[in-house]
Write a structure and sequence with these properties.
This protein is of the alpha+beta class. It is built from 22 helices and 30 strands. Strands 1, 10, 11, 12, 14 and 15 form a 6-stranded antiparallel sheet that branches.
Amino acid sequence: MKKQTWLLGVFMVLFLGAQMVPADDDLIERHKKWLEEEVVYIITPVEEEVFKILKSERERDLFIEAFWQQRDPTPGTEENEFKKEHYRRINYANHFHGRSQPKPGWKTDRGRIYIILGEPNDIVRYEGQSQVYATEVWFYQGLTDKGLPPGFYVVFFQEGGVGEYRLYSPLRHGPMGLMTSYWGDPMDYQAAYEQLREFAPELADVSLSLIPGERDITMGRPNMSSDLLIQKVETTPLREIKERYARKFLEYKDIVEVEYSTNYMDSDSLVKLIRDPSGIYFVHYAVEPERLSVNQYESKYYTTLKLNGTVADRNGQIIHQFEKDYSMEFDEEQLRQISHMPASIRDMFPLIPGEFKISVLLKNEVSKEFTSLERDILVPGESDGLQMTSILLGYRAERESPGENRLRPFQVGPYRLHVQPNRTFVLQDNLAVCYQVHGLSPDLRRQGIIRYDFVKNDEVSRTLTRNIGDYPDIPNFVEEFPLKDFYPAHYRLRVTLLSGDDEIIAGEEEFDLTHSEAIVRPWIYSKILSGTSDPAYAYVLGNQLFSAGKYEEARGQFERAYRISPDTMAFALGMARVDMALGKYDTIESFLLPWVDKPEPPPYEVFFTLGKAYQNLGDLEKAADIFDKAVTHHGLNTTILNTLGECYFQLGRHDEALVVWERSLEINKEQPQIRKYIEAIKEKK
């Protein structure tokens, strides 16, 4: 069956020192031409900076592809209408505005405006007149979607009657600049306007203002609106593009596959830290891509999303990684229902105390598009005293009755929060405010007060106070505010815990209240997870602590998982790994030996860890036997061969050591130390 793509709707910080940016001379000719001629009027400063910093022709070619894709009005089709129209405008400018000029048409003022705005709705020319220099008045309308007035003029004139047509400014040139003979006061715009009006009344009107109906003169001079309009016209292409894709291209070009690298799509995201009643902090996150592409096969529509996440500490050490696949399938009715709704992919994972950077990469394997989120997050420790989690805002909060212990993203205690990353609400909504306060003293529980301040335009517009004792689910706090009496605006909500008049702790979050009657809420894809009694969570935390070098704490988590499920090989291996790091070699046999002779051989790491434990205990015969089994089940690699050679050599079995070391050298010749061992054995023969 023929496949058809359907669209369902909708750096790192650039800290680039000058020494990092290559000179333009480093660009090959076609890249230099693309940058300095073809896109010079439509490329943003960030895009230009990223393009210059790329190191290879291949990377720049991919960036150019991404550049055009970000401007494609119909990304689901083969033709890029924006790119096609842009090059048509360049060709037109070169052909019609480069005549009799010492420079190509794209470099002229008329060529520049034509490339930016396209064909005018009307052109009036003043040529061959003795009173005014050759002048063209271009009229545009219907460009309000670009932030421009409903109708406006752009004027070009042949200054002094010679040379190319220059872009006219009412404030800088004035009516006197358009006339061949004006002997009045060069600063008297009113007198010049009256003189020009005698023989060119329509041109006179335009000479004072490029915006119809705004011919105001302030103190005898045109106002600034026309010059601001010209500035706005020339920056229109820069305002229309979201530069974030360029940063993402630079950040992920060496991480994502080539077919994805040009297809960054924007997204909204939300990351919140919520503490479970067990005491474990979970990172809850949502990624809401601007569109979701699916393929069609017969009457079904499907896509596969791959999610990769990393958590790194302040030193860049990776302490947690995860990968998940989401396969989605829809019938026509489901497709129709969700086609006008954004998709929200949600998940959660436990995290140990510390300061971390979270990075999540979401790839659509059908359309080869990707998006990402990055956040810095601080997970407090139990000894950090009074703590307030960040505020979570939702458009609905549901209190659920106690039931089976299950976890789901953005659930706080018994409350399930319906949230959206952009935090935009309508007057018909109830604003659900949710947060946690941990470490409350008995006095604060009895006498403490929570104050809610809604700040608009840096002024508190309304305030509500509640006694802490009024909340039934401490440490979970949920408050709902009807928004029908609020005025649409941007708000900052500040939540403060008070003891008497003293502010003890506070948190803030921002949101927008819109005039719209309704907002399209997302359809949510997430999975309900098992409760924290599942030993898998202890295992995950153990691995994080192990990666952070906190071996004793890691052992406590691994031991908890192993105690609950000793028949899980991963838990046994976790115990063995941490005991190896702690130098407790004598315990490792009890964890790993039962797995060695299973019908289905265990992973390579089981053999290697057990073999190293025997080697460190001095039991070289057992170590050699285990390493030999590793080779039998998992094949040859230099690490296992070199370690096996050490055991043979220490046992006095030099011929066997020579054989395995020579085999290791065949695999990798760049091993000078192994070469020395081999030469030493041969010299003794």
